[in-house]
Amino acid sequence: MRAYDSIRMAVAGVRHAKMRSFLTMLGIVIGIASVILLMSIGNSAQAVIINQVKGIGSNLVFVLPGASKSSKFSSPAASQGIIIKTLVKEDADALSREASIVAVAPEVRGQAKIVYGSNDTTATFIGVTGPYFSVRDFVVAEGRTFTDGEVNSYERVAVLGSEIAKTLFGGYDPLGKMIRLKDVAFRVVGVLEPKGVGPGGIDQDNAVIIPITVAQKQLLGIDYYNLITLQASDSYTSEFVKQRVFSIIRESHHITNPDKDDFDIRTQEDALSLLGNITSILTLFLTSIAFISLVVGGIGIMNIMLVSVIERTREIGLRKAVGATNGDILQQFLWESVILTFVGGLVGIMVGGLLTVGIYFILVDIVKTNWVFSLPVSAIGLAAGVSTLTGLVFGLYPARQAAKKSPIEALRYE
User: Fold this and answer.
1) What is the reported pTM?
2) What are the contacts of 75-79 at 24+ separation with CB within 8 A?
3) Which of 78, 204, 272, 343 has its CA 20 to 30 A from that of 316?
4) Average pLDDT of the chain?
5) Are 390 and 301 in contact (CB under 8 A)?
């Protein structure tokens, strides 16, 4: 029998039992839609996280106090609440003379109550130098940032994150107003555009940025840095700059044995590599869960096809009696299974795509997040291929059972 005739008869068989065919396809629809949706969510989450890492600046290298020996992805000592005083002004000055480094931005951090009038809140303050804003790609929404001249002259000026400005001032203009931070008065000179979470998990939109000299001497009483951010030149690779920084700070700290390092260096590539691995594993895990539903749907198809073979035993006997071969019977039932799964796969792709679009609009327009739309072609191709393969795999056994039936016994079947 020609393949065309087998397909035509398979389509007629599927249309003959519409409700059963619909219920059979439903498991495949749910499975394929789940695969599309979860792969899209995984890709979108990966894009959002990577965009946040890239959003803190470009070509950045981070120098942290304290060494981390176990792994380049392990948490540095400074992030575990341990006070380490190894990074100082001499280190920043030495790094600023390196040709492969465009800018050096040391910083210190602390927490304090911030007061304006009757409004107050506890927030993070960050002490920085003038280049910090350009190195970290901060955009000023109102006013301005402060200069190195103001830093060196201990000017009490402050730049507010977008959310802290709303908390303290509501809808009023904060520029020129005086706020109090640890009972020290600061004049607000600027407000930043929303920035999100930065290195160390700091909510930069709820932070107050002040001159590093004032933060060190008048608020914290320290002479060391919590972090030094470097912007590497585009002419050099981040790995080259990283090795140069190791050499410079080891020389500054009089370290001859690398095992005795009292600092650590991280790059954006390190963060992107780690986050990429995590999100890829998450996407694989979610997709694996979705494939389980496909297996369940495939088993459902096999069960339904076995029932169909039993119900159509006399039909099989008649067809064999008039000359149909085992191959003809096998083809017909196998095509029925493939058609069910293929059509279910197409419907599942459409449903998964619609759900992906719906979630995107909910997260962007209603929840107001920076969600990224992603509907990977690989997910659609994978879903279509897997649905067809499911039909072949789970339809083969019922089709073989139908093909093996004896025509005499089939005709006697009641």
Assistant:
1) 0.65
2) 76/264, 76/266, 77/264, 78/226, 78/227, 79/200
3) 343
4) 82
5) yes
